[in-house]
Design brief:
By secondary structure, the chain is α/β, with parallel strands linked by helices. It is built from 9 helices and 5 strands; from the N terminus they run αβαβααβααβααβα. Bound molecules: 2-acetamido-2-deoxy-beta-D-glucopyranose (NAG) (2 copies).
Length: 298
């Protein structure tokens, strides 16, 4: 799979998913599930089922006002990216993994948790960090092997698309710690640690048989509403744009490196940073007349 910078994630993932057509209602070898990991960008309501605080949940007004009634736990007035991607790929809504009502994950599962980072320290105790999300996926892998047998389970896992949106919280959650963000680490050291942990999780997916990864870059965080809200004069914190950009550069390098070294590994990258930046700088052009930020999460 070629590197597909700057192509919208929806298009990329839909293509990955539709390389072969999927049919509903039963399992067959063309079946392509979607597994989703990350933070509030993709959380469909997992945080409703963990012990946390309302800051890390989105199951109340005005969340969900334009689509889910009542609010589903998505950090959005309506659907989130992963919902649209599933729809365009002809999949059902991907089930929220921690919702005890869900037990059929043949079309995929969504493990994302609002506020989660790649580092276990980021918002620890309030979120399901990415490593734990991978452990839950490991439980599901075992369940597939038990229920389908090894051969079918392996086919399902290698057909599947694994979509990630994670990393922004690793930088946001450190901002408050000190005037010099990320102290005692340099930007380079800290980014290496975040990317190192993301890489471990991608390798974990690969070891369990996953081959197709879709990754979103992190937003440029300097002018993020929650960042500005915490600063005198509501100024942007330009240091955060430097580190977000560095993260995205390193992510790009790492994905390319993994593709070069892991047999059968393919990825697509969505330049979320650029897409969000355009919308924050020129909201009316994209149909937003009023910007609000009811939560301090990515
Ligand atoms: C904040 O960072 C400075 C160095 O930039 C360091 O000297 C100081 O001890 C740090 N404070 C805390 C509370 O970590
Ligand atoms: C992952 O993050 C931890 C801190 O949570 C750090 O100690 C470790 O070195 C990181 N791993 C890699 C491979 O960078």
């Amino acid at each position: 799979m070629a590197v597909t910078n700057y192509v919208p994630l929806l298009v990329i993932v839909s293509c990955l998913l539709m390389l072969t057509s999927s049919s509903h209602g039963h399992y067959d070898k063309e079946h392509i599930p979607l597994f989703v990991f990350g933070d509030s960008l993709f959380d469909p309501g997992n945080n409703n089922y963990i012990n946390t605080t309302p800051d890390f949940q989105a199951n109340y007004w005005p969340y969900g006002v334009s689509y889910f009634h009542p609010a589903s736990g998505r950090f959005s007035d309506g659907r989130i990216l992963s919902d649209f991607i599933a729809e365009y790929a002809g999949l059902p809504l991907i089930p929220t993994y921690l919702d005890p009502q869900n037990d059929d994950f043949l079309y995929g599962a969504n493990f994302a948790s609002g506020g989660a980072g790649a580092l276990v320290e980021s918002n620890a105790g309030f979120v399901v960090d990415l490593k734990t999300q991978l452990e839950y996926f490991g439980d599901l892998e075992k369940q597939f092997r038990r229920n389908l047998g090894d051969a079918k389970a392996e086919q399902l896992l290698s057909n599947a698309v694994y979509m990630f949106g994670c990393g922004g919280n690793d930088y946001l959650s450190s901002v408050g710690n000190n005037d010099s963000i990320l102290y005692p680490y340099t930007h380079e050291q800290y980014v290496r640690m975040v990317i190192g942990n993301l890489t471990d999780v991608i390798k974990g997916i690969y070891e369990k048989g996953g081959r197709k990864i879709a990754f979103a870059t992190i937003p440029l965080l300097a002018c993020w509403p929650s960042v500005r809200a915490g600063r005198v004069g509501n100024t942007c914190n330009e240091e955060l744009d430097l580190i977000s950009s560095l993260h995205n550069q390193e992510l790009t390098k790492k994905l390319q490196e993994l593709e070069n070294h892991l047999d059968g590994f393919m990825y697509s990258k969505f330049d979320l940073a650029n897409e969000v930046n355009k919308r924050m700088r020129n909201p009316s052009k994209y149909g937003t007349s009023e910007l609000r930020n009811p939560s301090n999460l990515v």
